[in-house]
What does this fold into?
Amino acid sequence: MNGPRDKDVRYAPQRPRFPEEAKFPWLSMLLDAYAMIDEGVAVAVKAQEDDLDVKLACREGCDNCCRSQSDIPLYPLELVGIYWFVTEKMTGPRRAALKEQLAGHGKGDPCPFLIGSSCAVHCVRPVGCRQFNVFYEPCDEGEDPYFTRRDDVLTPIREYTERAFSVMLPFYGIPGHADKNRAVTHIIQTQVLNLKSFDWKRLVGIMDNFDAGKSES
It folds into this structure.
């Protein structure tokens, strides 16, 4: 892995930085883990493009997976990150539109964070969203390529995924000397949520309280 990792890291998006990281240690954990995931995706995509002479079909403005996927994995630390970003960083009309979508989100609806064919929480979007990439042809409307053409869906590099979840372990109270592989498996099996079926109405209340506090100060 050393060769590809050293060579292809340049294809990964730059890790975002927030001043709140000094106050919230969990935020640095989350962003570091996401940077590791993004690096792994960049390495895997580049390798598949080179080896098979294919091109990634996913492009900016493509929102099929945000609409068609019924199960988007979401882990507790990722949930905290979304709560923080939406509550404290989003502003203006986009914030108002998101609150309306969160309040009315129901089963079978597109991802509630999809606004105008773009992700409102892109910099803190979950691992599952980051790793879902499709080659060859863009998806048909409503298509889930995982079932219709599994070979076209990127298979993430396990090493990067395990390392990313290991970075998150202190958030779950798991010390550095623990059996990390077993701990990661435990988190995946017992604490994963589904972003599409999660009840986001509580987040709307938190946003309202935050806004009220700002207006009173």
About this structure: Confidence is low (pLDDT under 50) at residues 1-7. The radius of gyration is 18 Å.
